[in-house]
């Protein structure tokens, strides 16, 4: 199987790219430092996430996911400096055929919030997902109390599709979610 080129997206202040094997220690540091901050918004982490080997294996899994056209995990780094890791964007559960959609997830570290990084990153990453990955629909869901995510998605042009009760188990509790999506107005069939 021919390897797909790895995406690297540059914004004014950020570099968005897939994790490399050498990034495993930085991913471990990021999650150790931010676990209490991220815990109310994410599924409970595996105890294995406290080990470097876990992140090394995840990087390989994400690489294979990309090669098989099943998803894309992008990591946010300052453009002027390869560290520290600022956050993550995931285009996951990618479905082709007549659907051409995926789910979007994202998070920033505690010290990176409030600087406009996620808007900047998602604005460019969504363009990449629509233009280079040829997706038609991107879905993102958030808990009703997460006003910051609601504002971000609205600003990015996501519309509310509905409400799902007890949608995901977050921090051990089944949480309701607001369902949103954004479609690609200029979708075209990928060239073969």
List the helices and strands and how they pair.
Layout (H helix, E strand, L loop, with lengths): L7 E3 L3 E4 L6 H15 L13 H16 L4 E7 L8 E9 L5 E8 L8 H15 L5 E6 L4 H9 L3 E12 L2 E11 L9
Parallel strand pairs: 5-6
Antiparallel strand pairs: 1-2, 2-3, 3-4, 4-5, 6-8, 7-8
Helix pairs in contact: 1-2
Characterize the structure shown:
The protein has 192 residues and is an alpha+beta fold. The chain has a domain at 8-136: Aminopeptidase (3-Layer(aba) Sandwich). The protein is built from four helices and eight strands, in the order E-E-H-H-E-E-E-H-E-H-E-E. The chain has helices at 24-38, 52-67, 117-131, 147-155; strands spanning 8-10, 14-17, 72-78, 87-95, 101-108, 137-142, 159-170, 173-183. The two termini are 15 Å apart.
What's the main sheet like? 8 strands, mixed
Provide the helix percentage: 25-40%
* Gyration radius, in Å: 16 Å
Shape assignment = globular
Would you state the CATH class of the domain at 8-136? Alpha Beta
Distance between the termini: 15 Å
Order of helices and strands: EEHHEEEHEHEE
CATH fold naming of the domain at 8-136: Aminopeptidase
Count every helix, treating DSSP H or I runs of 4 or more residues as helices: 4
Mean pLDDT: 93
Number of strands: 8
Strand content bin: 25-35%
The CATH H-level homologous superfamily of the domain at 8-136: Gcn5-related N-acetyltransferase (GNAT)
Sequence of strands across the biggest β-sheet = 1-2-3-4-5-6-8-7
> Given the helix and strand composition, which structural class is it?
alpha+beta
Architecture (CATH level 2) name of the domain at 8-136: 3-Layer(aba) Sandwich
**Model regions low in confidence, pLDDT < 50 over at least 5 residues:** none
């Amino acid at each position: 199987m021919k390897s797909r080129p790895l995406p690297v997206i540059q914004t004014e202040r950020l570099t968005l790219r897939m994790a490399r094997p050498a990034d495993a220690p930085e991913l471990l540091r990021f999650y150790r430092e931010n676990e209490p901050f991220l815990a109310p918004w994410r599924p409970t982490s595996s105890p294995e996430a406290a080990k470097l080997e876990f992140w090394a294996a995840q990087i390989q899994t994400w690489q294979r996911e990309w090669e098989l056209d099943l998803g894309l995990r992008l990591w946010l780094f300052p453009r002027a400096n390869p560290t520290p890791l600022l956050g993550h964007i995931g285009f996951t559960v990618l479905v082709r055929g007549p659907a051409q959609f995926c789910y979007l997830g994202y998070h920033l570290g505690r010290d990176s919030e409030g600087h406009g990084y996620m808007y900047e990153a998602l604005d460019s990453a969504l363009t990449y997902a629509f233009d280079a990955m040829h997706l038609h629909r991107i879905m993102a869901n958030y808990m009703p109390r997460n006003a910051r995510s609601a504002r971000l998605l609205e600003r990015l042009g996501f519309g509310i599709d509905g409400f799902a009760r007890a949608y995901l188990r977050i921090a051990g509790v089944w949480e309701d979610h607001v369902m949103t999506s954004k479609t690609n107005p200029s979708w075209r069939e990928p060239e073969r």
